[in-house]
Amino acid sequence: MNIGIFGGLFDPPHIGHLIIAQSVLEEFRLQKIIFIPAGCPPHKTEYSPYHVRYEMTTLAIQGNKKFFINDIEKTIPGKTYTVAVMRKLKKKYTGKLYFIIGGDQWEEIETWKNTHALFTECNLIVVPRPHSLIKKSSRFFKKILIGHSPLVDISSTVIRKKIKQQCNVQYLIPPAVYQYIKRKKLYI
Hints:
The protein is built from seven helices and six strands, in the order E-H-E-H-E-H-E-H-H-E-E-H-H. With about 190 residues, it is α/β, with parallel strands linked by helices. Helix 1 (about 15-25) links the parallel strand 1 (about 1-10) and strand 2 (about 30-35).
């Protein structure tokens, strides 16, 4: 079984995440995509509580029989490093794991903990992101697979800013996530 692993803050999850996941699922003929909300990522300092991001991600993927969610990062104490998460996932799932990242994350790959070891734990799919190049200069370039998902210029950061400015974001996020954010009065 070929399984896509899609990690991120998902603060909030938006249609860009879903478009990328569906595109990678089809392009690489994966059997499923598992969304992994970040626990305590080393490169970020401010984000919503884990349970809020987990609930929003659950709402975002509902209805797609090939999308699943896993709370593995919630169980890891301290900083959650991708290589450690992938090692735990390899013990849980049989088959090949394909970790999905955006071009913006690819630009930082050399700063990740044990990057070289990550490539022994999984295959890495890098998808294009607006304003980010998939640079060939990394020593890991020949080890990656490049996805061809549509370029969607949406980010969770922009969505949070728009909500704070009282702008309408209902077409940027799944309807259930939009209702959740309104109900919980998030990002205001």
